[in-house]
Design goal:
TIM Barrel, single chain, 8-stranded parallel sheet, 24 helices, 16 strands, 8-stranded mixed sheet, about 45% helix, binds magnesium ion, about 575 residues, binds phosphoenolpyruvate, Glucose Oxidase, domain 1
């Protein structure tokens, strides 16, 4: 039966394909004590689950069509082997018996121990088998909960048009999808500017978050239409619906192709104002798409993604190679690399503290400064890479002058260390700060004298100004870039920076929202940095804009506090 689900579209376009449900074995698992007399029963329950999964896998193995790729059968065999290994089929039973706990908990404890061992393996191939262990554990968890199993594909094939359906995904999960070819992904949770959504946008596939019950209502292999622009998922569409969306998809893809001819066009407004369009990237390999979409610089390299999905920290040489690669690949164009913005919703595999309000806690520059030795490793790596092109260093979430002073002191220390080692770097490397906290925006003068440039992180600036958690879909409706307080802060930032002759960019999601391009131009922004998927749309809008004519509208927008009137003015601005 066909039905429709509504969420928040975070990346436009239409995908038509089959559902692939993903769950995460690392998700919360209940822990409860089992009375001694029930321990044999609990142990038998676990044994049953192993049997069920074995039968399921054998059944799937038998059903593999002869024409299927050979890896598919090998993949199932591998899972059977993992399942039958005593570390998975026997050890949890011992845990149930010695700790007198439920089977799910015993399995999780054993899984954690196994995964840790995998992290310490040097061989890349073997280390990758960690995912297979996780998938087998997921099957066992599902068998324990009485749900039928499923087979995740080894690597999604672009031809299959798989649509990933998840309850929730971490930014680290999403960044891993970059290596696979999914047609789309949809989740139950998530806000529009959560880091998960931000990374999802960079995949340039239609995606929707905040669907609430999608993971529960959609079945494996069910036909889905995902309209990322409207935030709508049609489950099991009828023939007419399918035909209509195929047509819309074709039109959308055609429009994208047409935009490509703007790639090398100079980005000037209609009245000749030059505008820089830079790209936001998460990994060095994203540079190719950035250039392919006409980016004239990297405005934000979120370096923290080098620290995710691993158990160790990247050392100086590894970081240096990554930063040098980006700098070299950009071939003299500016590359702004943000020092690691970890904490809040982006965490390494290191043991974590779990503060009550992680977004207000030890994240970004606060975390960098909390461990100067670790921070110095990154600063040295960045400085070394600065020798190979035009590299700028960006400090995330600055809030007070001391953070800048301390960072500058560490930069000087890193330079001295390189001098001692006789390693070259750009002595004139520019250091900028991200304006993401209202306090920093209001007291901007504190930074204009100390830094070389600023970059406005509106994702966080809005979160902190409106007290709306960007990761919480329950309050996503309150997340409003057009709130007069946000517009007022932006106007203040651009005005103050202009007076101080300080370059200022904007690298939050607002920069890639084509409906806000003219508003930002009218506010004085001349350097936008966004995910590559939006570069050409925004360029087209810039080319069709007349800054002189925009200004009076924007001045009116800054004076009104009535949301309807604001919306009306924005529509007129974009007409
Ligand atoms: C921002 O906050 O706007 C920003 C660009 O940084 P991030 O989204 O990574 O927090
Ligand atoms: Mg931020």
């Amino acid at each position: 039966m066909s039905f429709t689900l509504h969420g928040i579209g975070i990346s436009g376009g239409i995908a038509i394909g089959r559902a692939h449900l993903v769950s995460h074995a690392k998700l919360e698992v209940g822990h409860y004590a089992v009375p001694p007399h029930q321990v044999p029963e609990e142990s038998a329950r676990f044994e049953n689950a192993v049997r069920t999964v074995r039968d399921e896998l054998k059944e799937v193995r038998a059903g593999v069509p002869a024409a299927a790729p050979a890896e598919f059968a090998a993949f199932i065999d591998l899972h059977l082997m993992i399942l039958d290994d005593s570390t998975l089929s026997v050890a949890p039973r011992r845990i149930i018996e010695t700790e007198q706990c439920n089977a799910e908990w015993a399995l999780k404890v054993q899984m954690d121990a196994l995964l840790e061992q995998f992290d310490n393996i040097d061989d890349g191939y073997l280390r990758e088998r960690k995912t297979d262990v996780l998938q087998v554990v997921e099957r066992l968890m599902r068998a324990l909960s009485g749900q039928p199993g499923y087979i995740p594909p080894p690597t999604a094939d672009p031809e299959l048009n798989l649509i990933l359906v998840a309850h929730d995904l971490s930014p680290a999960d999403v960044v891993q999808f970059k290596q696979h070819h999914f047609a789309s992904f949809i989740t139950d949770l998530g806000g529009t500017t959560s880091h998960t959504a931000v990374v999802a946008r960079s995949l340039n596939i239609p995606s929707i978050v905040a669907l609430h019950n999608a993971r529960q209502l959609i079945r494996e292999d069910e036909m889905l239409i995902v309209d990322g622009t409207q935030g709508v998922v049609i489950v099991d569409p009828d023939r007419r619906g399918l035909a209509e969306y195929e047509l819309r998809k074709h039109e959308f893809d055609l429009g994208r192709q047409k935009l490509r001819c703007l790639r090398d066009t100079r980005c000037l407004t209609f009245d000749g104002v030059a505008v820089e369009l830079h790209a936001n990237i998460e990994l060095p390999q994203d540079v190719a798409t950035a250039l392919d979409n006409g980016a004239t610089g990297i405005g934000l390299f979120r370096s923290e993604f080098l620290f995710l999905n691993r158990s160790d920290l990247p050392d100086e040489d590894e970081q240096f190679e990554a930063y040098r690669q980006v700098t070299r690949d950009m071939d003299g164009l500016p590359v702004t690399i943000r020092t690691y913005d970890l904490g809040a919703d982006k965490n390494t595999a290191e043991p974590q503290r779990f503060p009550t309000n992680p977004a207000l806690g030890l994240r970004a520059v606060r975390l960098c400064l909390s461990d100067p030795q670790r921070f110095l490793i990154q600063l040295r790596a960045l400085l070394r890479a600065s020798h190979y092109g035009k590299l700028n260093i960006l400090i995330p979430m600055i809030m007070n002058a001391a953070e800048v002073t301390q960072t500058m002191h560490l930069v000087a220390q890193a330079k001295a260390a390189l001098d001692e080692r006789g390693l070259p770097y750009d002595a004139d490397v520019k250091i900028g700060g991200m304006i993401e906290v209202p306090a920093a925006a209001l007291a901007l003068g504190m930074f204009t004298r100390k830094l070389d440039f600023l970059s406005v992180g509106t994702n966080d600036l809005i979160q902190y100004t409106l007290a709306v958690d960007r990761t919480d879909d329950a309050v996503a409706y309150l997340y409003d870039p057009l709130h007069p307080a946000v517009l007022g802060l932006l106007a203040h930032i651009f005005r103050t920076a202009a007076r101080a002759r300080m370059p200022v960019a904007l690298c939050g999601e607002m920069a890639g929202d084509v409906s806000l391009t003219r508003l930002l131009l009218g506010l004085g922004l001349r350097q936008f940095s966004m995910h590559t998927a939006h570069l050409l749309d925004v360029k087209q809008r810039v080319l069709q804009s007349n800054v002189a004519a925009l200004k009076p509208f924007v001045t009116k927008m800054l004076r009104t506090h009535d949301p309807e009137r604001l919306q009306e003015l924005l529509e007129r601005l974009n007409a």
